[in-house]
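[stage:ingest] chain + small molecule (nicotinamide-adenine-dinucleotide)
[stage:ingest] validated
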Amino acid sequence: MNVLFFSAKAYDQQFFTEANRKFGFDLKFLEIHLNRNTAVLAKGYSVVCVFVNDTVDADVQQVLAEQGVQLIALRCAGFNNVDLKAAGALGIKVVRVPAYSPYSVAEHTLALILTLNRKTHRAYNRVKEGNFALNGLMGFDLHGKTAGLIGLGKIGLVTAKILKGFGCRVLGYDIVKPAESDGIGVEFCELDALYAQSDIISLHCPLTPATYHIIDSGSIQKMKRGVMLINTSRGALIDAAAVIEGLKQGQVSCLGLDVYEEEADLFFEDLSDKVIQDDIFMRLLSFNNVLITGHQAFFTNNALQGIAEVTLQNMADFATKAVLVNEVKSA
Ligand code: NAD
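[stage:predict] done
[stage:export] C-alpha cells:
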C-alpha cells in the first residue's frame, strides 16, 4: 500500500519510518500542507496521511477521490478539519488516533499553568541578565485553588488527576459525565458554576459547532476576576479578541495557549525572519502574562511513537478489510 504524507516534518519521517518496519508500506513524505492546490499530488496513492492544519474540506476530498484516494488517515486525535459528510458521500474512509498519550497533553497543560503562575519564563530571562529582583514574580499556591476543566475525556481526566495531586479542588463540565470522574474526586457541575468558582479554567473538549468560541466575552464575564485560562485543545474554542479585552481589564490574569484559531498560517514553521501579519496574535504576544507554545503539547517521544504505530495499524486494518476501530464518520 502506498501512502502520501502531507505536512510531514523530519520527526514524522523518523517515527513513521521506524514503526513501518513492521508494516512495510510504501511511504512518501511531503512537507507541504494538503489544500486545494496540492491535493492533485495524491495521484496514484490509495492513502493520504494528514495532520491538524491540513485542509480536508469537500473540495479537497473531491480532488483526492479523483486521484484514487480511498483512505484519509489523520495522525492526530481531533478531526474538526475534515468534512465527514463529504467523505461519506465520496466513499472515502477516515481514521484517526483517538488516544496516544493523554499524559503528553495533560503534562503540557500543567507546564503552562506552573510557568504562568510562578513566572519561570520571566525569571529565566532575568537571572540570565544578572537581575535577581523578585518584584513581579509572585505566584500563588496551587494547593487549595479551584481548577475547572471543560471536557472530561482522556486528557481532561489525566489533567484532573495531576491537579488533585497538587491539592486542587477540581470541577468538571462535560456533555457526558464519565464514570471515572467520581473516583478521581472531580466535582461534576454546570458550566456557569464552573465559570463562577474556578481560579484556573482549562479546555479539554473537541472543537465542534457547540464549542466554537465557548470562551467569548459573555463567558469571560461569568468567570472569577483574575482567572487563569488555559487552552491546549483547539484554537477556535477561544475568541482571542474577547480574551485580549479580558486581559486588558484584568478579568483574565494569565493566558496559556498551545493552540490558536489562526495557527495554520503560523505554527510548525520557522517564521523568525518574517513579519507576522496577524495583529491579534501579535497583541497576545505583547502581554507578559500570556504564554504561547506552537501546538507542541502532543510532542513527546512516547506520543509520536504511539501516533505512528496506531496510524499504520489503522492503514493495515483498511488494507486487510478488518474492522476500522478508529474510523470517524458523520453522525
Ligand atoms: P476525548 O474525546 O477523550 O475527550 C473529549 C471530551 O470532550 C469528551 O468527554 C466529550 O464528551 C467532551 N465534550 C464534547 N463536546 C463537549 C461540549 N460541548 N462541552 C464540554 N465537553 C464536551 O478527547 P481527548 O483525547 O481528551 O482530547 C481532547 C482534545 O484535545 C481533542 O479534541 C483535541 O482537540 C485536543 N488535543 C490537542 C493536542 C495538542 O497537541 N495540543 C493533542 C491531542 C489532542
